[in-house]
Prior knowledge:
The chain is mostly helical. It has one domain (4-308): Ribonucleotide Reductase, subunit A, CATH 1.10.620. Helices cover 73% and strands 0% of the residues. It has eleven helices and no strands. The protein is globular. It comes from Actinocorallia herbida. Its cofactor is Fe(2+); Fe cation. Keywords: Fatty acid biosynthesis, Fatty acid metabolism, Iron, Lipid biosynthesis, Lipid metabolism, Metal-binding, Oxidoreductase. Fe cation 2 binds at residues 106, 159, 189, 192. Belongs to the fatty acid desaturase type 2 family.
Amino acid sequence: MPEAIDIQVLNELEPVVEKELNRHLSMAKEWFPHEYVPWGKGRDYAFLGGEDWVPEDSKVSDAAREALLVNLLTEDNLPGYHSAISRIMGREGAWGTWVNRWTAEENRHGIVIRDFLTVTRAVDPVVLEKARMQHMEIGYEPDHGEKVLHGVAYVSFQELATRVSHRNTGRASEDPLCEQMMQRVAADENLHMIFYRNVLGASFEVAPNAAMRAVADVVKGFQMPGYTIDGFLRKSVAIANAGIYDLRLHHDEVLMPVLRKWGVFEIEGLDGEGEKAREELSEFMTALDEAATKFEERREARRARIAARG
């Protein structure tokens, strides 16, 4: 059950949630997954007398194929995310309306990506289905339990991280149709990020010290929700080496823009605990920036060695 501070925050943020929900509904564009799938490129698999998937069927790069697989498996776990978010935020009022709307929009992402990958044979559908079963059987539980501010802080960053990953995956595919589809999905994720970011921003006025602690904890321990995917570490390394999502992007395009929007390093009036959380956040961001630079240097050196070998 949410703690007392979380229940208080839920109640006080209800008007903000309603306002952000109405803003979202006014900006969200209706779209249909079937329109982004090149159905004419499809053909039967062996079960229906056709041919099963072979690696030569895929027209996207190895890194893009790994990213597409990870992105789709992440979207597949939507039932777990809905369950967790509804437990934290509730099923009533503006919060409940938002959670249901968010779930409906996210569900389209899994639909369109799966249909596209299956029709175009971009990935092995047997491998995909086995991975989906395994991943969903593990389920999903938020790292910070049922803490409202931690939950909202997490999705503020996670939605933006997903937008960046989807967008860059589309580019890396070198397939104009795939890129168009992933841009459409990324546009949804951006609107979701804005909703959560604005709600969490308002929490700095309601409970600034608790909000700062939530942000510090989430940033320091951030993991994408797909980290339980089998082989996730290997896949994430390939994705990072391809520049689809790496430490530099995480620092520069995900964490820092949101932190600046909240003005976390300028907020005044924090108590001792709030200041401690902010110091931890600042130290972590400095260390992450340094780690990102080292990763970039190693990646460039590796690319240079590969180029030298022809």
